[in-house]
Amino acid sequence: MFSKNFWQRFLKKDEVHQEIDEELQFHLEMRIKDNIVAGMTAEEAKADAIRRFGNLQKVKSDCREAKGIEMIENFYQDLRYGLRMLASKPSFTFVAILALALGIGATSAIFSIVNNVILRPLPFKAQEDLVMLWETNLTTGHEQVETSYPNFLDWQKQNQVFEQVAVLPSVNFDWTMTGREEPQQVVGVFTSANFFSLLGVSPALGRDFTPEDERQGAAPVTIISHGLWQRQFGADPNIIGQKLTVEGEPMTVIGVMPREFDFPSGVELWSPLTPSPDGWMQQRDFRVLRAIGRIKAGTSFNQAQVGMNTIAERLGQEYPKENKGF
Questions:
Q1: Among the listed ranges 134-148, 272-286, 306-320, which one has the minimum average pLDDT value?
Q2: What is the mean pLDDT of residues 74-86?
Q3: What is the rounded average pLDDT of the residues 171-195?
Q4: Is 4 helix (H, G, I), strand (E, B) or coil?
Q5: Is 71 exposed, middle or buried (0-12, 13-18, 19+ CB in 10 A)?
């Protein structure tokens, strides 16, 4: 806000004041000499010079203001006065400091959230083409309803507006993981095999999921976060291919995500959804999955909306018990 030269002048303000006084005195004496040369007496010359200069104190103040000293001196005086007032009322001072601390803390927290959610770009390829897909329950008016696994499969097959559609559960899971050390609690999630490829993010180490990884009866595999790799496995470069036991089930580590990847937030372990012949993944009305789509190049948001509405109407006719009104 202030230049280096300004602060140098302020720190040496006594010298600046002296310089102003000497400069004004010099001009005043020169005017007196000119008046004497013009025929005035010494008294007349001095009186005329002072009259022409006007109020010397105002002139000095104007000079100090022009050099930036007046403003900082006023601020310094106000600051000293404010500190004295605060010192004289400690209870008020405590409340004021507490209010400031809470206000600054809340502002910082809000900015961090806004920065992460709105201002800072997502670490995904062509993020502007990514959308969330929700069902709408026209009966209840709920506009953001998760979808079921059978509906997701039909969305994948029937849509003409998305390059890919991927799903993951609406909640993350707390899993118990055992490996080299004592059991650890980790946050994990199941995803469709195309989850990372849809986002345009690849593992920093190892490989991504493949369609074979989510086939029924496929050997369980997992991809771990960069933080978990460092914390639990000491950034072992030979982690790929090693076995972990998660919730009592052995899994093979096939990849480690980049350091900056954090989606869903806080997840440390990803595994592919593998359908079973029975259970919730066969139930069309069991809506527990969040869906993400990547719009095809040249397709507008409105076109994508119309395309998905058409599919929803078709599924409502084919499966009225589960999908009518969605």
A1: 272-286
A2: 76
A3: 91
A4: helix
A5: middle
Instruction: Give Cα 126 distance to the centre of its chain.
Output: 18
3-state SS class at 177? strand
Query: What is the model's pLDDT at position 256?
Result: 98
* Mean pLDDT taken over the chain: 85
Task: Supply 166's token pair.
Answer: 């991927």
Q: What pLDDT is attached to residue 53?
A: 65
> How much is the pTM?
0.65
- Beta strands 173-178 and 221-224 are unpaired
**E strand segments, the chain:** 130-133, 135-137, 142-145, 162-169, 173-178, 184-191, 205-206, 221-224, 243-246, 249-256, 269-272, 289-295
Q: Which helix (H) or strand (E) holds 60?
A: helix 56-66
252 contacts: CB under 8 Å, gap ≥ 6: 219, 220, 221, 222, 241, 242, 243, 244
The answer to whether 135 and 272 have CB atoms below 8 angstroms apart is no
* CA 221 to each of CA 141, 171, 245, 249, 250: distance values in angstroms, whole numbers, following the listed order: 39, 20, 10, 10, 8
Q: From residue 314, how far is each of 82, 158, 317 by CA, in Å?
A: 72, 10, 5
